[in-house]
Amino acid sequence: MCGIFGYMGKSNAPYIIHQGLKRLEYRGYDSWGISTIEKGNIVTTKDTGHIPESIKLKTNPTTVGIGHTRWATHGGVTITNAHPHYSTDRSFVLAQNGIVENYTELKAYLEKLGYIFDTQVDTEVIVKLVEHELKTTKTLREALIKAFKQLEGRNTVILLDSKSGQILAIRNGSPLILGVKEKDIYLASDPLAFNQYCRDIVEINNGEMIEIKDGKYKLFDIKKDKYINRKPREEKLLEIDIDKEKYEHYMIKEIVEQQHTILKATEYTQKQLQPFIKRLKETENIYTIGAGTAGFSADQIAYYLRKIGKKNAISIKSYETESYLENISPNDTVIAISQSGETADTLEAVEILKERGVYIASIINMPGSTLSRLSNSYFMSNAGSEICVASTKVFTSQISFGYLLSKTLVGEYTDAKRELRTISNNLEDFFSKKTFKQIENISKVLKEKEHFFVLGKGQNFHIAQEGALKIKEISYKHFEGFAAGELKHGVIALIEEGTPVLSIVSNDKNVKDLISATQEVKARGALTIGIGDKQDTDCFDYFIEVAKSNDLKAISNVIPFQLISYYLAKELGNNIDKPRNLAKSVTVK
Ligand code: F6R
């Protein structure tokens, strides 16, 4: 969350920074700010809301500056709270990505020393701390290092100094990467922000500081107190596919792309999978971890590894790994799942497990991400850039790969590939005008309701949860996904006349249970919607028949939820690609 950008070079810094921030906007879009140095002074333009397509900056063309796009943690969304933040003498500005976890203590300490705070953001604590350290250090870089070492939490900061004309940045946890092209130097939370200009990157690790001055950069290890010589290397970065083509929103484009992306995610040959399959065969337990949609992916992949792969696979939410950590041993294998490869909760769990000698494999969509670097091995989802904040195509890519892995474990690689091709072909027919119209019409009915329940079982249990998450993210309606078996144990108390209940029904051994559950809610007045394989029953008020599949029903069944989410949000006039309060990459805890 929050995007950081810095630039020093031959081009017009305000323009480059604005373009970079637009590309980082997926990390947060509450407010933004750009600071540049003009005639020795720092000039800043800030505003709340989305970064406009073109902006009228207070600054003239200049060659150095920093920028920030914010996802609020401490303090409301106001221009005052927007980064970068000035030092008291206005000689430097600082922007941050992360959370200063000891913010309260540090603020109290600084207030006692007489510092006065103008904002509610934790970043101001860093600024004041640097000012304070500057009283007893010779240089600003020394003061920054001393201040930075007092911060708790995963923080990355960038500072622009008008006196020396330099940019300083330190990374701990929250991502930061350097791009170099001759005399042009870029610094950003994600290389996507500058990969239209340069491909040569320098990785910055935790505890490293970057100093950019006079068109040159220097890397410094703040723990070992010494300079590091790290040459740029060319990285195959993900292209941002900013073309919406014929679609009105990225979300619908990305939903339709799934017929192709599930195949791209599973292009691995048996030979390529072999070393990891060998490891999985020998491993005692497999733990899958992830958060949010990637967490449901982790659940579904663990389900496939148990049900198909015959392994003891346990899914854990990244932010709830603590009670498991002691029991995970080097004889086990952890599979971390993450679109961005930068999710703080997932990285923190992986860092701890790695230290304990546990083998980490990951499924990621972002080349060069922190998770890929931390992992012993990784598999790319190859879904291309997913721009809509709500994840759709990456979710199905992840579970397709998990399915391929599970089938390969039991010698059924070819069968899995056949099934993936079948579902891909059937999805092509499913994405028809007729389907879109039907879901649009159902969404018009749902628009009037507030609370919704989604029921699933077995292969569809986690799909009920992911389906509900997808709809609440974009429509802001209260959807809850449950195991159908849970209904009678409490949830049914919430069913009243007109309550919409969406049941996922597949032609599998659970179908009877799902139909009984639907009958039970219908008897209590629920509005019933079936999603799945066609059923010979009159218990559904509406029925969405999904793309045909054999044992990959999770994919066919999740897609109608993505479409309901889309059409419902459209009906409600919500911002589909950038829903409120969310960010695509959750780099804070
Ligand atoms: C929901 C969504 C989030 C992410 C979660 C983890 O649509 O996208 O729930 O899945 O924040 O992100 P990654 O996959 O980047 O680790």
From TrEMBL:
Q: Which domain of life is it from?
A: Bacteria
Keywords, A to Z?
A: Aminotransferase, Glutamine amidotransferase, Repeat, Transferase
GO molecular-function terms, A-Z: carbohydrate derivative binding; glutamine-fructose-6-phosphate transaminase (isomerizing) activity
Task: Tell me yes or no: is Cell cycle among this UniProt entry's keywords.
Answer: no
Q: Which residues form the Glutamine amidotransferase type-2 domain?
A: 2-215
Cross-referenced Pfam families: GATase_6 (PF13522), SIS (PF01380)
- Looking at the record, the residues that make up the SIS domain are 276-415, 442-579
Q: What is its EC number?
A: 2.6.1.16
Write out the catalysed reaction. D-fructose 6-phosphate + L-glutamine = D-glucosamine 6-phosphate + L-glutamate
Single Gene Ontology BP annotation = protein N-linked glycosylation
PANTHER family this protein is in?
GLUCOSAMINE--FRUCTOSE-6-PHOSPHATE AMINOTRANSFERASE, ISOMERIZING, GLUTAMINE--FRUCTOSE-6-PHOSPHATE TRANSAMINASE (ISOMERIZING)
Q: What is this protein called?
A: Glutamine--fructose-6-phosphate aminotransferase [isomerizing]
